Amino acid sequence: MPTPVLDCRDLRKRFGSRTAVDGVSFSVAAGETYGLLGPNGAGKTTTISMICGLLGRDGGEVVVDGRPIDVGSTDAKAAIGYVPQDLAIYPDLSARENLRFFGRLQRLSGRVLETRVGEVLELIALSERADDRTSEFSGGMKRRLNIGIGLLHRPRLLVLDEPTVGVDPQSRNAILSSVADLGSEGLAILYTTHYMEEAERLCDRIGIIDEGRIRAEGTRRELVGLIGEKDRVTLVAGGSLGPAARALASVERVQEATATDGRIELVVEEARSLLPRILQEAAAAGAVVRSVEVVEPDLEAVFLHLTGKALRD
Amino acid sequence: MAATVHAVLTIALRDLRQRVRDRSAIILAVVAPFALAYLFSVMLPGGSAAFHTSYAVVDLDGGPVARSLVNGPLAALKEAGVADVTAMADEAGARAKVEDGAMAAAIVIPAGFSDAVGAGRAAELKVIGGADATLAAGVARSVLKGFASGVESVQVSIATVLVSSGAAPDPALIARLSGEALAVPDPIILADDRTADRVASNMTFYAASMAVLFVFFAAQFGVTSLLAERRAGTLARMLAAPISPQTVLAGKVLVSIVLGVVSMGIVALGTSLLIGARWGDPVAVAALIVTTVLAASGIALLVVGFAKNEDQAGGLTAIVAMTLAVLGGSFFPMSQAPEGLAQLSLFTPHAWFLRGVNDLASGAGVEAVVSSLAVLTAIGLGSGGLGLLRARSVVLAR
Questions:
Q1: Which is more confident, B295 or B81?
Q2: ipTM of the complex
Q3: Highest-confidence segment of B20-29, B172-181, B383-392
């Protein structure tokens, strides 16, 4: 495994008698998007605050790009792009002025700063509104600028703290697409969310966090595998359903196949990869498939299994 | 080091730009102190101006003792420029002058006053004080009491001489001798050689007092923005950059200092050019302003350390600023304050600043304000040091 861009080991934080983070460890490699999935109050923001050097920790270690991070760190923080949950922008400044200000704090200056500001404005699709005060922006535009500021200095690690909270569906989709693009460009991304769909869509690996502890970690498939649930495929079809069901039952990774009332119900492993084979076998056995529905076990079920409560509690 | 300085300046310039755009800051830091200094100096009596009043004197006696009063203590008041003394023929006319405010008080010497003194009987002098001139009437009473004391001493002396010589006490003789004795200049003269008065003109006093009052409001803008930025999340974003919490604090304190210096500087310059305030040696005034701003910024930082949000910080700053202003003599000269309050005022930056301005306005140079500069610097460093410790927790609080 390559050297991780972010390596957290046994992070601990208490606020008075309450333990907010209790031995959290994980790492994120270059080009990897790691999701911290948990409900509000699970310890996601506290963990991120310690990673970014905004909050002192009671125990553990954070190493970013090979350098330890603490509250007093300065140079090492240059490797991090931080996108807070709040819209941390100045409403009395324009988008360009906001980018310039935070760019200067990131030690950019002169032509490098201006070039980078232009690039980020282009990236977040705000070039045409660059000189308008952000108080006049829509919520989605502010969110895009909020993310753009975190990208300005080309960090090795991008930390996004619930960046889609309170965002309309269209802007949310645009943000998720942008994050996916950034991940594919080699950036290490730490993404916190309490939206299961976002974690499933974006993250290469996911850490399920609750009450300050990582309960499980892995790819979506690995996490789902922890609770032993399989995918369910429903074929709405005509023709010879009985023979088709028997033929499908003999296909590798198909565990059950039953024909009932114009449908063939299947229990399979990794339905998406097996779907072409299933359709091929059904057709060969005389079934005429009119529609297909795939139901995969989700992280909601995993979370419920691990914590005994729903993700959105 | 260069990167830190660059970050401090970046933070400070952004805040200053915001303040320039925010007209309320300009009004509070510049317009309000200037306007109030002008209004106070015009509307309120000159607290530090020399006392002057006017008396009507009605001498219904005309005897030697009465003449010695009129030509002695009352004439001395006129010569000293303390009072205009006007002789009037009757008590009713004098009373009318007092009642209509033309005279501050009237002194009535009744007929038979000299004879009564000569006979050793109770002799009455009357002071008619105006309703709005209690100080003038009080001064008149003090003068008359002093005169009465002198008369009593002379009576005793003359009676003693006459009794010891075996002569019978003759009231007319005693009255004449008393008048002559009282007319003789005092054998002992009290030399009043005070150190130089610490008194500025009315205009200068109020210009300085309003400048030091409002500098607290100007200085708060920089450091209270820490709380606003913490609420907005921009503070966390700044701290996620490669800068330390101390760098952010330094940027905010720098804003307070710049706003304070600009506020006081404009008030000093403006009141000098436009309404005739005389602040004195510009270099010494500049030093006083800088050290006063340092003290105000330190206290503002300390206040911020105890506040939960910017609204609370604004309220606390207003309470502290007004309390210090009252105790420190921003609303009336300390020369008129009770001794206890004058002592208490020395714990405020206002008193030391005003003391310094008074010295400079009286023509003194920078050497006269060294103690003010030292105390103001000490207040600034002391409160600022404690404030930095408190404010660091504000910066790092989540």
A1: B295
A2: 0.79
A3: B383-392
CA pseudo-torsion sign A268, A271, A273, A279 = positive
B240 to A52: CB separation less than 8 angstroms, yes or no: yes
Residue B363 lies in a domain: yes
Give B167's pLDDT tier (boundaries 50, 70, 90). Answer: low
Higher pLDDT, A256 or A12: A12
- B-facing residues of A in 122-141 (CB < 8 A) are none
- Contact residues for B121 (Cβ-Cβ < 8 A; gap 6+): none
Where does residue B344 rank: exposed (0-12), middle (13-18), buried (19+ CB within 10 A)?
middle
Of the partner residues B18, B233, B238, the one whose CB lies closest to the CB of residue A105: B238
Q: Does residue B105 sit in helix, strand or coil?
A: strand
Q: pLDDT tens-digit profile of B221-240?
A: 888 888 889 888 899 999 99
Where residue B187 falls among pLDDT bands split at 50, 70, 90?
low
Beta bridge pairs of residue B229: none
| H or E element that contains A272 | helix A271-284
Q: Is the pLDDT of residue B43 over 50?
A: yes
The answer to whether the CB of A52 falls within 8 A of the CB of A70 is no
**B231 and B153 within one domain:** no
Q: Which residue, B176, B194, B212, sits at the end of a domain?
A: B194
Same domain for B178 and B100: yes
Q: Which amino acid, one-letter code, is at A176? A: L
Domain ranges, residue B256: 11-46+199-396
Contact A231, A200 (CB under 8 A): no
Do B228 and B164 sit in the same domain of this protein? Answer: no
How does DSSP classify residue B59?
E
> Over pLDDT 90: what percentage of chain B?
19
Distance from the Cα of residue B152 to its chain's centroid: 39
Angle at A231 between CA A29 and CA A291, to 5 degrees: 115
Note whether A166 contacts B: Cβ–Cβ < 8 A: no
Q: A117 near A92, Cβ under 8 Å?
A: no
Helix (H) or strand (E) holding B202: helix B202-232
A80 vs A89: CA distance, rounded Å: 18
Within an 8 Å CB–CB cutoff, is residue B238 touching chain A? yes
Q: Is the CB of B239 inside 8 Å of chain A's CB atoms? A: yes
H or E, element range at B313 = helix B310-328
Q: How many separate domains does chain B show? A: 2
| Interatomic CA distance for residues B18 and B12, integer angstroms | 10
What's the pLDDT band for A1 if we cut at 50, 70, 90? low
Which residue has better confidence, A195 or B333? A195
Across the range A122-149, mean pLDDT stands at 90
Residues B205 and B354 in one domain: yes
Token pair of A118, please?
Answer: 């232009």
Residues B188 and B244 in one domain: no
Domain co-membership, B270 together with B339 = yes
Q: Which of B66, B172, B56, B53 is nearest to B125 (CA)?
A: B66
- What is the tens place of the pLDDT at every residue in B52-74? 788 899 998 888 888 888 888 88
Q: Quote the CA–CA distance of B24 and A301 in Å, as a whole number.
A: 55
Domain-ending residue, one of B194, B223, B254: B194
Answer whether B241 sits within 8 Å of A102, measured CB to CB: yes
> Which pLDDT tens digit goes with each residue over A193-206?
888 888 888 899 99
- The backbone torsions φ and ψ at residue A64, rounded to the nearest 5 degrees and listed phi first, read -120, 125
In Å, how far are A249, A257, A259, A278, A293 from A246, measured between CA atoms? 5, 7, 9, 12, 19
pLDDT at residue B190 tops 50: no
What residues of B are in contact with residue A99 (Cβ under 8 Å)? none
The string of DSSP codes covering B9-42 is HHHHHHHHHHHHH-HHHHIIIIIHHHHHHHHHHH
A 10 A CB-CB count for B342 gives 14
